[in-house]
UniProtKB/TrEMBL annotation:
<dbReference type="Pfam" id="PF00759">
    <property type="entry name" value="Glyco_hydro_9"/>
</dbReference>
<feature type="domain" description="Glycoside hydrolase family 9">
    <location>
        <begin position="1"/>
        <end position="144"/>
    </location>
</feature>
<feature type="active site">
    <location>
        <position position="122"/>
    </location>
</feature>
<feature type="active site">
    <location>
        <position position="131"/>
    </location>
</feature>
<feature type="active site">
    <location>
        <position position="71"/>
    </location>
</feature>
<comment type="similarity">
    <text>Belongs to the glycosyl hydrolase 9 (cellulase E) family.</text>
</comment>
<feature type="signal peptide">
    <location>
        <begin position="1"/>
        <end position="21"/>
    </location>
</feature>
<dbReference type="InterPro" id="IPR008928">
    <property type="entry name" value="6-hairpin_glycosidase_sf"/>
</dbReference>
<protein>
    <recommendedName>
        <fullName>Endoglucanase</fullName>
        <ecNumber>3.2.1.4</ecNumber>
    </recommendedName>
</protein>
<dbReference type="InterPro" id="IPR018221">
    <property type="entry name" value="Glyco_hydro_9_His_AS"/>
</dbReference>
<dbReference type="InterPro" id="IPR033126">
    <property type="entry name" value="Glyco_hydro_9_Asp/Glu_AS"/>
</dbReference>
<keyword id="KW-0136">Cellulose degradation</keyword>
<keyword id="KW-0326">Glycosidase</keyword>
<keyword id="KW-0378">Hydrolase</keyword>
<keyword id="KW-0624">Polysaccharide degradation</keyword>
<dbReference type="InterPro" id="IPR001701">
    <property type="entry name" value="Glyco_hydro_9"/>
</dbReference>
<keyword id="KW-0119">Carbohydrate metabolism</keyword>
Length: 151
């Protein structure tokens, strides 16, 4: 989702620029209007939130189907209340390799997303698909803020 969120944010920013400049962009036989660019960005947001072939939201905690085994140490280890003893780096491997869902939900985090075949393994070792990052989530915050005001 790294490229999807960043490019969608740029599409939205460029759409706003074109709208204020009262311009469109010719692109082959298509004309990219501000409305078309906004529509493309919105479709990508909808895909991330569950309008996709798997019917899976890639945002943890959003909708009824979302990633449960994300590649995130704080989410995959038991809480201090459940396990007050120190968990060393190597000792965390048993939790990392566990097939069980993460005991702590990192609500709002967007993971890497599906692979090239549009499949999502929902497994911690597949960090490309299951790891949430700031460079995925930050542009999405901008998109969600815009679309919450301009549905």
């Amino acid at each position: 989702m790294q490229h999807v969120t960043s490019l969608s944010f740029l599409l939205l920013a460029y759409s706003n620029y074109l709208s204020h400049a009262n311009k469109v962009v010719p692109c082959g036989e298509t004309t990219a209007s501000p409305a078309l660019l906004k529509q493309l960005a919105k479709r990508q947001v909808n895909y991330i939130l569950g309008d996709n072939p798997l019917g899976l939201s890639y945002m943890v905690g959003y909708g009824s189907r979302f990633p449960r085994r994300i590649h995130h140490r704080g989410s995959s280890l038991p809480s201090v209340a459940a396990h007050p003893a120190r968990i060393g780096c190597k000792a965390g491997s048993r939790y990392f390799l566990s097939p069980n869902p993460n005991p702590n939900l990192l609500v709002g985090a967007v993971v890497g997303g599906p692979n090239i075949l549009d499949a999502f393994p929902d497994s911690r070792p597949y960090f490309q698909e299951s790891e949430p990052t700031t460079y995925i989530n930050a542009p999405l915050v901008g998109l969600l803020a815009f679309f919450s005001v301009h549905p």
